[in-house]
Amino acid sequence: xxxxxxxxxxxxxxxxxxxxxxxxxxxxxxxxxxxxxxxxxxxxxxxxxxxxxxxxxxxxxxxxxxxxxxxxxxxxxxxxxxxxxxxxxxxxxxxxxxxxxxxxxxxxxxxxxxxxxxxxxxxxxxxxxxxxxxxxxxxxxxxxxxxxxxxxxxxxxxxxxxxxxxxxxxxxxxxxxxxxxxxxxxxxxxxxxxxxxxxxxxxxxxxxxxxxxxxxxxxxxxxxxxxxxxxxxxxxxxxxxxxxxxxxxxxxxxxxxxxxxxxxxxxxxxxxxxxxxxxxxxxxxxxxxxxxxxxxxxxxxxxxxxxxxxxxxxxxxxxxxxxxxxxxxxxxxxxxxxxxxxxxxxxxxxxxxxxxxxxxxxxxxxxxxxxxxxxxxxxxxxxxxxxxxxxxxxxxxxxxxxxxxxxxxxxxxxxxxxxxxxxxxxxxxxxxxxxxxxxxxxxxxxxxxxxxxxxxxxxxxxxxxxxxxxxxxxxxxxxxxxxxxxxxxxxxxxxxxxxxxxxxxxxxxxxxxxxxxxxxxxxxxxxxxxxxxxxxxxxxxxxxxxxxxxxxxxxxxxxxxxxxxxxxxxxxxxxxxxxxxxxxxxxxxxxxxxxxxxxxxxxxxxxxxxxxxxxxxxxxxxxxxxxxxxxxxxxxxxxxxxxxxxxxxxxxxxxxxxxxxxxxxxxxxxxxxxxxxxxxxxxxxxxxxxxxxxxxxxxxxxxxxxxx
Length: 708
Prior knowledge:
The chain is an alpha+beta fold. It has 22 helices and 33 strands. The strands form 11 sheets. Strands 2, 3, 6, 7, 12, 25 and 26 form a 7-stranded mixed β-sheet that branches. A hairpin with a 5-residue loop joins strand 21 and strand 22 (about 435). The longest helix is centred in the first third of the chain and has 31 residues, at about 5-35.
């Protein structure tokens, strides 16, 4: 028989099941209610508790000059907004209305270009602005991101605004908020701007110069932060810390850069030049360090600005500075030397159906001159004759020689925009005839700087190799990478060619280039203080349509050289583009070179060793004749080890003492105390006395002291 009474147990089970069923139905009903009627409410709650990951930007590295001065750095900038949905406005806007006039007056004081009334109108417009909430689809009043000021402001200005009434409350209450940006600033303004580079602030991306070529080094690595929003506050939980960018140390010397820029601008602005474009590159001979690089161009307003980096990108026909490369090829091939004479005639000669002219053809030309003098006076006829005579039947050998001496080398400059040289190689068909656009006149005109396209950076690198005894080094713009004051990477000097020509050819060319300045057309580039070597260049260049004779002639003026010529330290090229005459590479670009060279060398002048005292050195004066014991006592008290070992002889009261070497005061006292009358001539110490020492004194006698 069953122990359980079914009549009593089953009703209890049914009651429990019924209760559980009702509870289940209630739970499901509540869930349906939350999913439908309360969906918006709980969605907003979920948004408040939302967790997401935010990228944290690292600090961009600095760009420094060779001596550690800031050339580009990042500083914070702010855009300031009002959130008119903040708690202060939800509770009522009485406080806002009470402080509005004070706020607007304060903003006017900080931003004087807008009146207090204009600020008030602008802010009230934001407070009453209607907008549609995309989540709810409802119309709302009061903008959440209303610009207080349309432009970015610095930290100091931001703090001034932050301290105004109402804005000085907590952000959640007042609605005053900001957006932070990393702005790039150049403390030296436009100095070397095209080389240092720039940042597109809107996209936070580099777009030219070292900022772009070293972007991966400067940018750093972003971090990740988890953000949890609880009501109106965020909690940041770092996941991955950002790695700040490294600093790069450039080769630019700020002082040399400023000197080069001012010298070039003075010439470009002069009435006789009125230049369209100017370039200066200053290199260190041994290392290839670019100490200064200037790119000036005239804008539509007539102002000179750092525009396109023409120093590395402006390829044009270089003109007579190219003649050095032509003659170096001939000297290296040993087809001719400086004793080879050329008859330039009256300065005009026909070359394969075209007339070749020297710059002085109207004055009768240079007549018969040797190769060295040909380069000194930059004779077109002389240079083209040598190259055409020795290479006319084999122009390929000449062009290969140009690449061998480095004038056509691809330098692989690490800056966007670099254009490698364009020097044509002649092509022949199966019958040996020239094809393409190679004519009989191509070679002679190429030899004097036409028919080629070369940027200034290549020309100065070639001249630097001559100054460096034939060793060609790659131009260097960045020396090292630093992080937290420590060097993490270095970029050593890179040798492109150990020798561009035979030592004898290099030595001969160095002598010729020195004579170009001392007794040729480059005199204005020289200096009476040190030797300068270099070459002038004046070339007619094509206009924007590719023609040479469409109206006013345009010129490319240049001077390339190095200094001091007997111990080269710096190589420099100066290029100027101008329209119309007068046009002189030596008289215009050479003058700029002269000012730069003297300014740079002035920084290296050494004073006399006697003047070489620093703040820690003590200048010890010479001890004049007199009481040796007294002098030694004073020197001992001063802590000076120097001692007087020769005591002054003792003289009687009626015997004339030897006062030579004494100061005027001591000498006069010694003589007048013994009854002599003293006259002084000159300044300094006593050099001689008219009343000889050791002679018996006659009272009232005169003694003349000569001081020096």
